[in-house]
Structures are given as structure tokens and as C-alpha cells.
Amino acid sequence: MFAQTQTDGLGSGDASNEISLRTLIVRVAQEVELNSILASDFHDVISDLAAKNMSSDVIERLQSLDLISQTLVEIGLFLDRLSTVCPSDVFVAENLLNNIKLAALRDRLQGKAPDVAGAADPELW
Length: 125
Prior knowledge:
The protein is mostly helical. Helix content is 54%, strand content 8%. The protein has a 3-stranded antiparallel β-sheet. Helix 1 packs antiparallel against helix 2 and helix 1 packs across helix 3. The longest helix is centred in the N-terminal third of the chain and has 30 residues. The radius of gyration is 18 Å and the shape is elongated.
């Protein structure tokens, strides 16, 4: 998880290479919300396909998509609430995000991308 000192990734202060923990939590909550929407949409598409002669076993297994979507919604709501009680003077070293392989996600979490509107677009490699 997060380290206890600023040099390890978490601390107090406002430097150009740090992100407010509160802001980061809000950004992560937005990403979780977006992914819950994607999972829900995927569940709907699969459900439509499943209605066309799929076995009940397959349909039951596909219900896990609904559980994923609901879980992501709850995590997103929790993160929203957490951000409201997070101290405003706690910062995270931006370099902690450098290990995120999806560049668009990393940019959004760092605040380099204005919003998550295009986050659903696939990142091809």
C-alpha cells in the first residue's frame, strides 16, 4: 500500500511532483464508476446473446458480470465517501503511478487528461 514517508510516496506538503490523496481518490472513484458502467453494458449485451439458446449453466456463469458491475458501483461509492473525509494536506508522489501500464489511465489519474469520457476506448498496443 502507500508508504508512510514522503520519500516513499506519501506525505504532507505540496510539491509539483505530488498529487493530493483526496484528488487521487476522486479520480480512482471515477475510473471505478466508468468500469462499472462498462461491465453493466457488457452484461446487457451478453444477456441478449445468452437469451438465444445458451444453456442455463452458461447463463448462470454470465451472471458474474452483474456481480462485478454491482461490486464496482459499491467500491466507487465507498471511494467517493472516503474522499470527503480524507485530509486535504496529504499528498502522494506522482511517480507511484508510473507502474500503471495503461498510459491513458495513468494520464487520467495524474490529471493530464481532462476527463474519463474517452476512457472506454480501447488502448491498442
